[in-house]
């Protein structure tokens, strides 16, 4: 009962701020929190990135190994994305196998990379039907202050941009950079009382009616979309969210990825 009362009070507080055109951390509705990215932070990984957006911190490592291709894509490499919600990141996270929300967020990140063609998987084929490079993207949440999804997406691309295919180590020719063709970026918005807010903080995620994540590519096309929550979005509101997400994704690429 106590938690329910606190939830109602928190929602009322955030809703009343929204009516004044304000957010609890002072940002505008279309403003993303400050971002800091460091790359090549894991010595043993083929690629890595540490990223902080507001108070949310995530570590991404990329490992490659030789494996067998899938039967329906015998000439393409394989991408496997996983996420771990470490208990140190939040009292709501528990140790043990990945929970449903971690699996879902990893899938959204994976889908954006896969559907955008961000990696040229044909260039990761060693011997068609026999050997390909398998790309493992491991996401570790170190601190959760909201919007893990977007931080993971940005961190995964940053780590991939630094990754090197270890051909020499594995006896498969020379090393080469990861064959990157695109930089898909996810941008999440929440609907609170009819207003859309970008990059939700943890308290906003907790009380929102609807959350939508839009993954866009460098040319503005959409490679992924995920909605959660019981609320509905009108066509007008959805189109506005897509337009804003594409704009913000372009700004994030320009500010944080093009120089990696």
TrEMBL record:
SUPFAM superfamilies: Ribonuclease PH domain 2-like, Ribosomal protein S5 domain 2-like. It is found in: Cytoplasm. Keywords: Cytoplasm, Exosome. It comes from the Archaea. Residues 31-166, 182-247 form the Exoribonuclease phosphorolytic domain. InterPro entries: ExoRNase_PH_dom1 (IPR001247), ExoRNase_PH_dom2 (IPR015847), ExoRNase_PH_dom2_sf (IPR036345), Exosome_comp_Rrp42_subfam (IPR050590), PNPase/RNase_PH_dom_sf (IPR027408), Ribosomal_Su5_D2-typ_SF (IPR020568), Rrp42_archaea (IPR020869). The keyword Phosphoprotein does not apply. One of its GO terms (biological process) is rRNA catabolic process. One of its GO terms (cellular component) is cytoplasmic exosome (RNase complex). Transmembrane segments: none annotated. It holds the Pfam family RNase_PH. GO terms for molecular function: mRNA 3'-UTR AU-rich region binding. Component of the archaeal exosome complex. Forms a hexameric ring-like arrangement composed of 3 Rrp41-Rrp42 heterodimers. The hexameric ring associates with a trimer of Rrp4 and/or Csl4 subunits. Non-catalytic component of the exosome, which is a complex involved in RNA degradation. Contributes to the structuring of the Rrp41 active site. Belongs to the RNase PH family. Rrp42 subfamily. NCBIfam families: PRK04282.1-1 (NF003282). This is Exosome complex component Rrp42. It comes from Methanolobus vulcani. The gene is rrp42.
